[in-house]
Design brief:
Elements lengths: L1 H34 L1 E3 H11 L5 H18 L4 E10 L5 E3 L8 E3 L3 E14 L3 H25 L1 H42 L4 H36 L8 E3 L16 H24 L2 E12 L11 E11 L7 H68 L4 H35 L4
Parallel strand pairs: 1-6
Antiparallel strand pairs: 2-5, 3-4, 5-7, 7-8
Helix pairs in contact: 2-5, 3-4, 4-7, 5-6, 5-9, 7-8, 8-9
């Protein structure tokens, strides 16, 4: 009995602790997810999976499957129920109305028929097979067009990534400047307490510190807004602690890249589709052979004009259809396809020409930004040295707080300009790689 009570107590404790354990694990997992890094390539994948257009992909396959099923059904015999009634001004009349005449046939002016008409294609010239190839080619074109549309998401992801990184770096620079000012506030506070520093000098530094804190709040608001937009685009929460990681060492100067964009494959598939359409034109020009059968009831007998009673009948045979003269329509349709293929090649040439133009423009921008970065680094080094000297001069009373704040602002502006150009360099490099389909 004692053992049962102990077991029951443990079970009760387990039931109580289980919800807390689940909550703790969930919280830990969520915290880890929010603090994990997010690679740019992974963001592309998430954006594609979350974009509503991706739902069109299985629908394209379903439509193709249904069209193929329809084509397969066209191989089956067709069965039609036909009803026909007519009246005419005259009809066959043999002999006279004299009942003693050896031959007397008078077909009535009214006739009625109801019958089943059955047709089965023995040979369709390969039209159904050609149609299946066209359906398969159309599916590849549609799927590739979907990939081309989804590729545009990369530009949105790139823009959000780089904007967030730039704002985060600017916020870090503000924190560095705020720390420098805080250090000097502490030093001036000691002088103020000793009566060697005016309160106004100390207040000016405190004002600038508050201004930097305000700028930090503003930047964080912009960062949060971009993170929210990025999260909605990707379909996953992107927290403040998520580290956005750009691809490393993918770009090398003077590198030679070949174009591997989905648009190129789309051009190939479009040309292939036109070729399959030519196959359909050729198949349509071949003779068609079919079996047919007809059976039903008619008045008078449709097969025996001498029988003017209502009777059943049946017939069957082999039918050959061959359009031996189409007045050059097939040739014109093939010429039309050749012109469409030429248009596709023009589109391909324009596409590659635009990429080459963008390549030259990107490389020129990259050279210019690298030259700016080199100058920015020199300016930052000089401004940092001046700021160090200004801090010493402020502490010694050689300059006042206004002079020191001006130098803090100058050094901060120089660092921000450098970071802006560094982000712009990364932006150009990523856009360059994306342009060629390497990202």
């Amino acid at each position: 009995m004692k053992s049962k009570k102990t077991s029951s107590a443990k079970s009760s404790i387990g039931k109580i602790l289980l919800p807390f354990l689940v909550f703790w694990i969930g919280t830990a997992t969520l915290t880890y997810a929010q603090r994990s890094s997010l690679q740019l390539e992974d963001a592309y994948t998430l954006a594609n999976a979350n974009y509503p257009l991706i739902k069109d992909e299985p629908l394209l396959q379903q439509l193709t499957d249904l069209n193929l099923q329809i084509l397969n059904r066209k191989r089956l015999p067709t069965i039609d129920l036909v009803g026909l009634g007519q009246i005419q001004s005259e009809n066959v009349q043999i002999g006279t109305n004299d009942p003693n005449s050896p031959i007397s046939v008078d077909v009535p002016l009214e006739s009625y028929r109801s019958y089943l008409d059955i047709n089965y294609n023995l040979f369709d010239g390969g039209l159904i097979d050609a149609s299946k190839k066209t359906e398969a080619s159309q599916l590849r074109v549609n799927q590739q067009a979907l990939k081309v549309s989804l590729r545009n998401l990369k530009d949105q992801v790139n823009s959000l990534f780089l904007n967030i990184l730039l704002l985060q770096q600017q916020k870090n620079l503000l924190a560095i400047s705020k720390e420098d000012i805080s250090t000097n506030i502490a030093l001036l506070q000691a002088g103020f307490d000793n009566g060697t520093i005016l309160e106004s000098e100390l207040a000016k530094l405190k004002v600038r510190k508050i201004e930097l804190e305000s700028e930090e709040i503003s930047l964080q608001g912009d960062i949060d807004a971009f993170l929210e937009v990025l999260g909605k685009l990707l379909g996953v929460p992107v927290g403040k602690d998520t580290v956005l990681a750009l691809p490393a060492s993918l770009f090398q100067k003077n590198m030679t890249l070949s174009i591997t964009r989905p648009e190129q494959t789309l051009f190939d598939y479009q040309t292939e589709l036109l070729e399959t359409q030519k196959g359909m034109i050729n198949a349509d020009r071949l003779p068609k052979i079919a079996l047919f059968a007809q059976g039903g009831v008619g008045y008078p007998n449709p097969l025996n004009f001498a029988d003017v009673s209502t009777t059943t009948y049946g017939l069957g045979g082999l039918r050959l259809n061959w359009n031996i003269l189409d007045w050059g329509i097939a040739r014109k349709e093939k010429n039309k396809i050749e012109v469409q293929k030429q248009q596709i090649e023009v589109d391909r040439a324009v596409f590659e020409f635009d990429i080459q133009q963008n390549e030259r423009e990107s490389l020129q921008k990259l050279n210019a930004i690298e030259a700016q970065i080199e100058k920015d680094e020199q300016i930052v080094a000089l401004q940092s040295e001046i700021l160090k000297q200004s801090a010493v001069q402020l502490q010694e009373g050689v300059i006042n707080s206004n002079d020191y704040v001006l130098q803090v602002n100058a050094e901060l502006s120089a660092r921000q300009q450098l970071e802006l150009h560094l982000i712009q360099k990364q932006k150009i490099q990523i856009e360059y790689l994306t342009l060629f389909g390497k990202l």
